[in-house]
Every structure is written in structure tokens, then in C-alpha cells.
Write a structure and sequence with these properties.
The chain is of the alpha+beta class. The protein folds into 2 domains: about 15-55, no CATH class; about 60-215, Nucleotidyltransferase, domain 5 (2-Layer Sandwich). The protein has helices spanning about 15-25, 30-35, 45-50, 60-75, 150-165, 180-190, 210-215; strands at about 80-90, 95-100, 105, 105-110, 115-120, 120-130, 135-145, 170-175, 195-200, 200-210. Strands 7-6-1-8-10-9 form a 6-stranded mixed sheet. The longest helix is centred in the last third of the chain and has 16 residues, at about 150-165. It is globular. InterPro entries: THAP9-like_HTH (IPR021896), TNP-like_RNaseH_N (IPR048365). This is Transposable element P transposase. It holds the Pfam family Tnp_P_element.
Length: about 220
């Protein structure tokens, strides 16, 4: 890895070099900016463009998972503690053909399951640090009208497994008061007197989003 000289305009970087630069940037943005004055490092905007170009899909893609794993490696143990938030958002119903994937985008579906119904909303999953201010979108479900509770549950548990495998520790799950979420937590065994559920030996607390509770 050649870092001895200041970078030249138009220089191409290998994926390994980009991954190294991304890890360095995660450690300290200010230090990265300083080192960029003396070594062949990509600009911040170039790094962000590289990350933005990762393949997009409902699930946490391998490229996005690797980028998150690199950040986790330089986190302190307390910073690994996180929450998973879930929220539904309305979409403008439309269809789009993706020639790269030879796939019609905009129909209801998740992972390998797809229906013929046009999606009208998306259920988005995001991880957020509890002791440190960081966040990472994990995936989404395209659904027609509202997502069924069993699909939410299956996807949530998959997301927990995915980010646990790279060293994050899920302490809480947060959602609004939607009827599908309420049905899901009943299947998880969550009650007012027992606001948690167990998953693979770990106790995870379930919280309703406070602003939604106030509005309700």
C-alpha cells in the first residue's frame, strides 16, 4: 500500500485502499483530514460516494455490513450498545425497471419473497448507538398498505442476528403504537409488566416511541 507521497489528480484506488481509508476516517475525521495533506488518501467526498455506491437491497448487503463492521472494530465496548428502531413511511406508488438487476422495483416484497401488489409504504429498520451518537440504516420492507406482524418479527430477528454477528449488542427495540407492532410484541411475550423478550440468550427491551405515545 503506497502512502509515501501526496496523491496525484485522477489516481485510482484499489478496494483495499478504499476500505483502509474508510476505517481511518471512522477513527477520526480530523486526523484523516490532516493526514490527507501528506499522504495519498481519498477525499471525504470520494469516500462517501464509494459508500453510497454500495449495492442497495432490502436486506443489509454484504458491502454495507462490511463497512459497518469496520466501524464496530474501532468502537469501545460501551459504544457497541445499540437500539433498533422500526418505522413505516408512506411511498408514492410507482414502478421502475432496474436493468442492472433485471428487476421491477416498486412491488411488495422482502428479501426473496415478492408479490404482484404495488408497494404503498416501506418499513425501515435502523440501528442507533445508545452511548455514542451513530446510526446505520439496516434494511427495509416494501409493503402494500401495512406490513404483517409475522413478517416484521422475522425481519427484526434477522436484523438482530446480522448486527450481533459483527460485534454490536442490541439492548432495545423501538417502534410506534401501530397495531401490527402491538400484535408482534404479543407474539414475543412482551407485556406491560415484562417489557422485554429473549432472543438467543439475550434479554432485549421493547419500547414504544415516546412522541407517538404522547400523540396517541
Amino acid at each position: 500500500m503506497d502512502l509515501n507521497q501526496k496523491k496525484n489528480t485522477g489516481k485510482l484506488y484499489s478496494p483495499e485502499m478504499k476500505a483502509f481509508a474508510l476505517s481511518l476516517y471512522y477513527i477520526s475525521g480530523k486526523a484523516y483530514k490532516l493526514l490527507s495533506k501528506f499522504f495519498k488518501l481519498q477525499s471525504k467526498s470520494s469516500l462517501m460516494k464509494w459508500v453510497a455506491a454500495f449495492p442497495t437491497a432490502p436486506e443489509l448487503t454484504p458491502a454495507a455490513k462490511e463497512a459497518l463492521a469496520r466501524k464496530v472494530k474501532i468502537m469501545s465496548e460501551s459504544s457497541n450498545l445499540c437500539t433498533i428502531t422500526m418505522d413505516e413511511m408512506a411511498l408514492k406508488a410507482d414502478l421502475l425497471y432496474d436493468p442492472g438487476k433485471d428487476q421491477v422495483i416498486g412491488v411488495e416484497g422482502v428479501f426473496f419473497w415478492r408479490s404482484s401488489l404495488i408497494a404503498t409504504s416501506a418499513l425501515v429498520f435502523m440501528a442507533r448507538g445508545i452511548n455514542e451518537n451513530w446510526k446505520q440504516p439496516l434494511g427495509y420492507l416494501l409493503v402494500h398498505e401495512s406490513c404483517l406482524s409475522d413478517k416484521i418479527k422475522a425481519t427484526l430477528l434477522d436484523m438482530i442476528d446480522e448486527i450481533t454477528s459483527i460485534g454490536l449488542h442490541v439492548a432495545t427495540v423501538v417502534s410506534d403504537l401501530g397495531s401490527n407492532f402491538q400484535k408482534m410484541i404479543k407474539s414475543l411475550g412482551v407485556t406491560p409488566t415484562q417489557p422485554w423478550f429473549w432472543h438467543k440468550g439475550r434479554m432485549i427491551f421493547y419500547l414504544f416511541d415516546a412522541p407517538h405515545i404522547i400523540k396517541a
